[in-house]
Amino acid sequence: MRLRRFDNIKAFHSIVQDYLLQSEAEHNLLLGILHTLLHYPERYPELPYLAVVETSGKILAVAIRTPPYKLVLSKALNLAAIQLIAQNLQDLGESLPGVSGLVAEVAVFLQAWQALTGQSYRRVMEMRIHQLTQVESVATAGGHLRLATEADRSLLVEWCTAFASEIGEVVIDVPEKMVDGGLKRQSIYLWDDGMPVSWASGSQSLPTAARIGPVYTPPQYRRKGYATACVAALSQKLLDQGCEHCFLFTDLANPTSNHIYQQIGYRPVCDWHDFAFHSEM
């Protein structure tokens, strides 16, 4: 078993793509990050950590980190590969804000990292990956879906900042950068009911599939069906454009959103855990 690191994103992509696509739902985040690194490298200006653990030419696990964000782990065919990734990061002197991945893989990494560094950790969020292949008919709210434009920029920056504040984690390093990137890629959509009332981002960032998220509705517009309508309409739009399915993450602590997305047609695939590290005082 050996670990290989890559500095060239194209070379890394050619090595890992087939492995990641074998479990497309579980790897939709990693595939989306790879798509961004390939096509919009300015989104992640710092050198990413790109690693593969393999044996006899067979991939056992993949890891990606795009600073300042957390390490993201793939499904591992051998959990010992996760320990090797932790050891490599520690050898490099990497300071990690946290780790995100499938439940078993994250649990192994947490134990290995704590043993190597002495850092403790806390759970940030337990999530579930959902997949949709057909949008179910749901009661829709008044309004319509539209593509966000430059005229919406200041509102989007405000909403993006509020979203990051609610999450309480570094999910968005610079809201202006995220908004400008989304406007450039035409991946930000608004539900407009005389005024913008809900926001969902979505685009085809996988070969035959799309990822949706984040989804945000300001508090004053919640419980009116706007997010449901926005996600349903955007999901249908992406399917109409040729995507075979759509993926999204839900927060298991929010049963309302989980129920809403399942009404639209999203079906649970697997659970995903997100943890943060902090130094012992």
UniProtKB/TrEMBL annotation:
CDD domains associated with the record: NAT_SF
PROSITE patterns assigned: GNAT
GO molecular function terms attached to this record: acyltransferase activity, transferring groups other than amino-acyl groups
InterPro entries for the chain: Acyl_CoA_acyltransferase, GNAT_dom
Domain N-acetyltransferase span(s) in chain numbering: 143-281
Pfam families membership: Acetyltransf_1
Protein name: GNAT family N-acetyltransferase
UniProt organism field: Leptolyngbya sp. NK1-12
